[in-house]
Specification:
Blueprint (H helix, E strand, L loop, with lengths): L7 E10 L2 E2 L1 H9 L6 E2 L12 E2 L13 H6 L2 H16 L12 E6 L5 H14 L8 H5 L3 H10 L5 E2 L7 H14 L5 E8 L4 H9 L29 E9 H6 L6 E10 L10 H14 L8 E3 L6 H15 L2 H4 L2 E3 L2 H4 L6 H15 L1 E2 L22 E2 L4 E8 L3 E8 L4
Parallel strand pairs: 5-6, 5-7, 10-11, 10-14
Antiparallel strand pairs: 1-2, 1-8, 1-9, 3-4, 7-8, 9-15, 12-13, 14-15
């Protein structure tokens, strides 16, 4: 695939995660190897087999939007608006002037406004349809994160929302890259937002036997690549990246974290939940080809690494097939989900931001809770402690239910 001329850089990052509210807060907790997993506090869980999750603690929507705006929007939209606010400030962009028609927004979610859906259904059943909030529909549909961001900040460029389960955030980033490369826009606000820690959400994941039930030690529950892993841990929050055409960013004197250089997307065409590995492998190969990279030029993979028995092994095998001898010789592979839990549609945005920060600071975040590394996951998974090492190139993997795969590549910025 021929690369287009326009170079795309990351100029702003916004994070709202179980590790902290703010980019600095989340990043510092990640490189310190802290866990954001704890007992669920939002609803009664006494009858649930899984009673743990990565909740965002201390979130105050009034810091990022007025009270009326907060009341009208589901928590996933609130998270997305807050992360966008943080990212725009980080990028040195105005909050009080329209960003204009050359700024686009692609922000997705895996499931949208689940808590509002649950609450409104109970209202309709118990109190009748006349008590249903007129803002119910725009509060739950996935594209309203991007819609609300566009309205709030006057971003008049391309605006849509990918919905591809756990690959959503990476699809958003990759499609934003394409619009920038093609010259459709000069700037993109992109990433994902999710808020599925609800009775229905946790019950559904439990019924699917997908989540950890390590309720007695929640901070140890998310343990990618460890022999004793027993499922993923649900997380919530938002990760937003500000992407810009390089020349546009330089003209305004923007601080540049790194460059976004590649994108690959595929389907397993195999099974709803069981990963084939082959589709993930092709997505990584396509991403490297798009970026013009040889496997040995990549130093770090921010893995999908969900902490499921089957998924982790399938990803490691795919990485070995793509990177060959380099996989064991010089590649670091860590999963930040060990600390945040699995943010589903927001995972790619959060992990893309962590990857950009790893390149910018020369620190690779760890995979925590690797007490007994699975012999089938026998790569350097940066166990338990962050590693200070200058890296030039990295990829971030996201694979979703339905067999959908998206991989993005970042590189340390050089003129």
């Amino acid at each position: 695939m021929q690369r287009l001329e326009r170079r795309v850089v990351v100029t702003g990052l916004g994070l709202v995660t179980p590790l902290g509210i703010g980019t600095k807060e989340s990043w510092e907790a990640a490189i310190a190897g802290k866990s954001g997993i704890g007992p669920i506090t939002r609803f009664d869980v006494k009858d649930l087999p899984c009673r743990i999750a990565g909740e965002v603690k201390g979130f105050e929507p009034a810091l990022y939007m007025d009270k009326k705006e907060a009341r009208r929007n589901d928590l996933f939209i609130q998270f997305g608006l807050a992360a966008t606010h943080i990212a725009l400030l980080d990028a040195g962009l105005p909050l009080d002037k329209p960003l204009g028609e050359r700024t686009g927004v692609i922000v997705g979610s895996g499931m949208g406004g689940l808590s509002t859906l649950e609450e409104t259904h109970l209202t309709a059943v118990n109190k009748g349809h006349r008590r249903v909030n007129p803002f119910f529909i725009p509060s739950i549909i996935v594209n309203l994160v991007g819609g609300q961001v566009s309205i709030k900040y006057g971003a008049g460029g391309v605006n849509f929302a990918p919905v591809s389960a756990c690959a959503t955030g990476n699809h958003a980033i990759g499609e934003s890259l394409r619009h920038l490369q093609h010259g459709d826009v000069d700037r993109m606000i992109t990433g994902g937002a999710e808020a599925t820690i609800t009775l229905l959400g946790i019950s559904g994941f439990t019924a699917a036997r997908a989540v950890s039930e390590r309720n007695d030690a929640p901070e140890k529950a998310s343990r990618p690549f460890d022999r004793d892993r027993d499922g993923f841990v649900a997380g919530e929050g938002s990760g937003i990246l500000i992407l810009e055409d390089l020349e546009h960013a330089k003209k305004r004197g923007a601080r540049i974290y790194c460059e976004l250089i590649g994108y690959g997307a595929t389907a397993d065409a195999y099974h709803i939940t069981a990963p084939s590995g082959e589709g993930a492998e092709r997505a990584m190969r396509l991403c490297l080809e798009d970026a013009g990279l040889r496997p040995e030029e990549v130093q770090y993979v921010n893995a999908h690494g969900t902490s499921t028995p089957v998924g982790d092994v399938a990803e490691i095998k795919a990485i070995k097939n793509v990177f060959g001898p380099w996989a064991k010789k010089g590649l670091m592979v860590s999963s930040t989900k060990s600390m945040t839990g699995h943010l589903l549609g927001a995972a790619g945005g959060v992990e893309g931001a962590f990857t950009a920060l790893a390149l910018h600071h020369g620190i690779v975040p760890p995979t925590i809770n690797v007490d007994n590394q699975d012999p089938e996951c026998d790569l350097d998974v940066v166990p338990n402690k962050a590693r200070e090492v200058p890296i030039k190139t990295a990829i971030s993997n996201s694979f979703g239910f339905g067999g959908t795969n998206a991989v993005v590549a970042f590189q340390r910025f050089e003129e």
